[in-house]
Amino acid sequence: MSKTLAGNAVIGQSGGPTAVINQSLVGCIEGLRGCDAIGRILGAHHAVRGMVENDFIDLTDVPQDRLDRIANTPSSALGSSRDKPDEAYCQKIFERFAENDVRYFFYIGGNDSSDTARIVNETARKEGYELRAFHIPKTIDNDLECNDHTPGFPSAAKFVAQALMGDQLDNAALPGIKIDVIMGRHAGFLTAASMMARTRDGDGPHLIYVPEVAFDLGRFAADVDRVYSQRGRCIVAVSEGIHDVEGTPIATKLAGNVERDAHGNVQLSGTGALGDHLAAHVKDCLGAKLRVRADTFGYLQRSFAGCVSEVDQREARAAGRKAAELAVEGEEHGSIAIVRTSDDPYSAELQRIELTDVAAKTRTLPTDVIIDGCDIDPSYRRYFKPLLGGLPAIEQF
Amino acid sequence: MSKTLAGNAVIGQSGGPTAVINQSLVGCIEGLRGCDAIGRILGAHHAVRGMVENDFIDLTDVPQDRLDRIANTPSSALGSSRDKPDEAYCQKIFERFAENDVRYFFYIGGNDSSDTARIVNETARKEGYELRAFHIPKTIDNDLECNDHTPGFPSAAKFVAQALMGDQLDNAALPGIKIDVIMGRHAGFLTAASMMARTRDGDGPHLIYVPEVAFDLGRFAADVDRVYSQRGRCIVAVSEGIHDVEGTPIATKLAGNVERDAHGNVQLSGTGALGDHLAAHVKDCLGAKLRVRADTFGYLQRSFAGCVSEVDQREARAAGRKAAELAVEGEEHGSIAIVRTSDDPYSAELQRIELTDVAAKTRTLPTDVIIDGCDIDPSYRRYFKPLLGGLPAIEQF
Q1: Tens digit of pLDDT for each residue in B194-227?
Q2: CATH of the domain at B291
Q3: B22 lies in the same domain as B41
Q4: Quick one: which of A95, A91, A133 has its CA closest to A114?
């Protein structure tokens, strides 16, 4: 602790891109630049893959104005990867780290990525290689333990809210049943944020389904029928990760040839299958003549250029800077957590936590905010409100 | 011509909503308000359906600040309809118009809607009913004859450009093959606007397919293979309306139970089927292990809250006002066309055209800007640039 460790630094960006992951990259660079002990600041091209292939982008002397433009650009400027390093993979990483005199390692990502940072850190200790290893949080799923919320989530939630604001007005103009499929494998935070689209009584989404509770196709059709009978329209927000009572994802049940990534995750995004199936199910149950439509928001949620939360930008930058500062000050490893201290006026602080506190763990939506399995308690708006910031003004006759 | 006609006015909004259709509504109200001959200004609730069911919203005294907020709200504030009036339907409309002393009729919509305005106008003349009937252009498809572009298109095109800007960065970070399905049944303007996402050489979309040329599944796989082999990634923008050499939409070929609206149009939006089929086709041809994803932008393109072109807002408002002014000045019928007079600096003027100039006709993308059936000539950026206005700044390593 606190002794000076001379060497180079490597920063990587892993997992799914977000609107603000480059803010964390730039914050980390800024936090390292003031330290004489740091030699070169290297960006790993495509995350762990760049580390093993010795494919680095030298970030040491990138001018500040260019860094500022990078910070404001969505998606991962260094490139990303979904590789999950095993011991052999980590062995190669260390050979490259040794070759490049890397003593500082920062990995920006979600729970899979924090687990990678944990493995790399533990392998370093086992090998007697002195390394400071930090995870910097990032995930639109908002599912990291110990965090009030995670960088990337507020911007994605703002996209979802703005999409539903427009879509529920569209549905009011041309009434029918509309199903919007929103990202979220295990955590329903992003889908729940659709509630922020409501500006007055009767506004959609009228039904919200999250993966925290079991989804039943029969119950779903009955819910839609009830809302449609009452309002002449129904707009549904549903997580891609909804599953039945046995825990089998509804999307998996439908897919003939299920694709899995290196982490064993089934492909949920980049396909409209779940939405189309739910729409067909509603028609089967309630009538083929009904106007039923489904949209799957897909990758637009995480990287749409020009839809970003200012709080998210600021916090993502600060989280990157905080990790760098802790490492420079002598902390050997850890992750950064955002802890909210007040709703209104909003305030939050950044705290160091252990890598093992977040690694490979999944935080989910508090179940007490889920109403009857098909809505979110209105009081939960207080959670989302400061994160999203200003939303477009809506006026209706 | 020019004689004063006393009576009430009805305004309707038809077809698919847009981000600026309420600008045209408010512009029309503003254009009518100065005229003493106009009694009540009535908004037809759900378009022609409201007209036959005597379901009107009184707009005469809505305060200006509320009108301004309505103008800035996406989707159709009066509600819309896809009904296509036949003679019996029109007969009912006239009974209601007579009951309500309606002498001014404004219908905001696309080519189906301009045809409705034409039928209503011709029936009025046949029935000896003195009516001033105007069509106010609106369609994200940009497919109205005599118009350089149509209100609603620039904002939808801006959404498509911003979506592709983010998505092509996402695809650069996690390389693979990505297919984005964009609205456009017969006209490829909106899909072509995806070219504006490119900020430097190598940026996607790498392939652009529009309905103006026949689409061949074999040729498509070969195009993707060529780009993917060269760049290690490939991002495709494709119109929902692509069809084979016989003119059969690719989406129709796939659908078991094809749904049609009252105009005989096949359902293309509100389903991810086309994108999923194209993705499966690429895997079949190029390898099941490839990372292939598809997103269908769906209704977000036309009503996403918070993504709007300023030129579009201004022109949509002006088009509504122009129609009202022409009617008040004594013109009996017509439509409004936007005619561009200069690219840079951009300027355009509004002209009166005949209803028969636009009714039920479809303008398509000039075929000479389509390169090899799979791209758009870079020089065509000059067409889109002033319409979209400022786009988010992008910086890449």
Answers
A1: 999 999 999 999 999 999 999 999 999 999 999 9
A2: 3.40.50.460
A3: yes
A4: A133
Cβ separation A17–B173 shorter than 8 A: yes
pTM (predicted TM-score)? 0.96
Domain assignment of residue B393, yes or no = no
Q: What is the pLDDT of residue B263?
A: 61
Among B324, B314, B312, B315, which residue's Cα sits nearest to residue B28?
A: B324
Identity of the residue in B170, B270, B288 whose CB atom sits nearest the CB atom of A303? B170
Asked if residue B192 and residue B179 are part of one domain, the reply reads yes
Give me the number of domains chain B comprises: 2
A69: which chain B residues are within 8 Å (Cβ-Cβ)?
393-395
- Could you tell me if B165 and B197 lie in one domain? yes
Indicate whether B185 and B133 sit together in one domain.
Answer: no
| ipTM greater than cut 0.90 | yes
For residue A154, give the H/E element and its range: helix A153-173
Q: Where in the sequence is the domain holding B106, given as residue range(s)?
A: 7-139+308-358
The residue among A49, A231, A300 with the most chain B CBs within 10 A of its CB, best to mutate, is A300
- Helix-helix angle A21-33:A310-329, to 10 degrees: 40
Could you tell me if residue B146 is inside a domain? no
Same domain, B353 and B251: no
A169 close to B80: Cβ distance less than 8 angstroms: no
Which member of B77, B294, B395 has the closest CB to residue A69? B395
What gap in Å lies between CA B83 and CA B85, rounded to an integer? 6
* Position A85 confidence tier, pLDDT thresholds 50, 70, 90: confident
* Per-residue pLDDT reduced to its tens digit, B70-129: 999 999 999 999 888 877 887 888 889 989 999 999 999 998 889 888 888 888 898 888
| Nearest-by-CA chain A residue for B59 | A397
